């Protein structure tokens, strides 16, 4: 008999995002940065892994900004999250927008016990820095993707500059995010994430940094990963599912 999975979430984090759920799709709300970076991350994902007719799992989907965008590109998308209020917002918005996205209140770890090697693409964006044990989420994402499939992560590097930019700058000075959104000790260095993903059989295919210009108020992708970054992995086609 297998032991039950230990819940890999922070109740305070779920409460924080649930309290803001009604403003998820307001481009001028606390979620403005997500609306601004979504076209960048969507185009990056689509350039590496064609989305039409692909089965996609969006882990930590929140209110569904990325999930809906991938569905509009022709993907068969499932979004999962443990915060039920954002999921309710995501479901309602998808219905109103005519977007074919299914949403489930579950974790990647739990879903991996039932749907291993099911998805062509697994995305886990801006989520790892909010869970107590990110290595478990990384392992679950690796288990959920098919051989030959792609896994995409985005998170924040743990450097002195990331504290200055992502917390002091974004939360305290520019107020792009509510105070307390991030905890610096939970940020993950790229080398740490790569090592954990490679330990699960994934192969790194691409890496990008995420930059923000406070004067133009624009985000962009580049090669430097000192603050925010995105990593694309692939499970070898000959890997066992």
Number of strands: 8
Q: Report the principal-axis shape.
A: globular
Uncertain runs = none
Question: Strand fraction band?
Answer: 15-25%
* Class computed from helices, strands and strand pairing: alpha/beta
The tally of helices reads 8
What is the helical fraction, as a range of percent? 25-40%
Radius of gyration: 17 Å
- Name the strands of the widest sheet in spatial order: 3-2-1-4-5-8-6-7
Largest sheet: 8 strands, mixed
Give the averaged pLDDT, no decimals. Answer: 91
Give the SSE string. Answer: HHEHEHEHEHEHHEEE
Cα end-to-end separation:
22 Å
Describe the structure.
The structure is a single chain. The chain has 241 residues and is of the alpha/beta class. The chain has eight helices and eight strands. The chain has an eight-stranded mixed β-sheet. Helix 3 (65-72) links the parallel strand 1 (55-59) and strand 2. Helix 2 runs parallel beside helix 3. The longest helix has 17 residues, at 32-48. The radius of gyration is 17 Å and the shape is globular. The model has no long low-confidence stretch (mean pLDDT 91). One of its GO terms (molecular function) is 2-polyprenyl-6-hydroxyphenol methylase activity. One of its GO terms (biological process) is methylation. Its EC number is 2.1.1.222, 2.1.1.64. It catalyses: a 3-(all-trans-polyprenyl)benzene-1,2-diol + S-adenosyl-L-methionine = a 2-methoxy-6-(all-trans-polyprenyl)phenol + S-adenosyl-L-homocysteine + H(+); a 3-demethylubiquinol + S-adenosyl-L-methionine = a ubiquinol + S-adenosyl-L-homocysteine + H(+). Belongs to the methyltransferase superfamily. UbiG/COQ3 family.
């Amino acid at each position: 008999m297998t032991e039950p999975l230990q819940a890999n979430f922070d109740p305070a984090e779920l409460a924080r995002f649930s309290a803001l759920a009604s403003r998820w799709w307001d481009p001028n709300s606390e979620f403005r940065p997500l609306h601004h970076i979504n076209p960048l991350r969507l185009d990056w994902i689509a350039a590496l892994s064609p989305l039409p007719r692909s089965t996609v799992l969006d882990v930590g989907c929140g209110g569904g900004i990325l999930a809906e965008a991938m569905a509009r590109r022709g993907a068969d998308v499932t979004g999962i999250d443990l915060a039920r209020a954002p999921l309710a917002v995501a479901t309602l918005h998808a219905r109103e927008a005519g977007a074919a996205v299914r949403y489930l209140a579950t974790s990647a770890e739990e879903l991996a016990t039932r749907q291993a090697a099911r998805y062509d693409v697994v995305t886990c964006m801006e989520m790892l820095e909010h869970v107590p044990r990110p290595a478990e989420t990384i392992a679950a994402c690796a288990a959920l993707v098919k051989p030959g499939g792609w896994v995409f992560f985005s998170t924040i590097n743990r450097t002195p500059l990331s504290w200055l930019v992502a917390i002091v700058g974004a939360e305290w000075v520019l107020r792009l995010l509510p105070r307390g959104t991030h905890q610096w000790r939970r940020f993950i260095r790229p080398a740490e994430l790569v090592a954990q993903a490679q330990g699960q059989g994934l192969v790194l295919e691409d890496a990008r940094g995420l930059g923000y210009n406070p004067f133009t108020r624009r985000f962009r992708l580049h090669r430097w990963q000192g603050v925010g970054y995105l990593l694309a992995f692939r499970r070898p086609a000959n890997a066992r599912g």
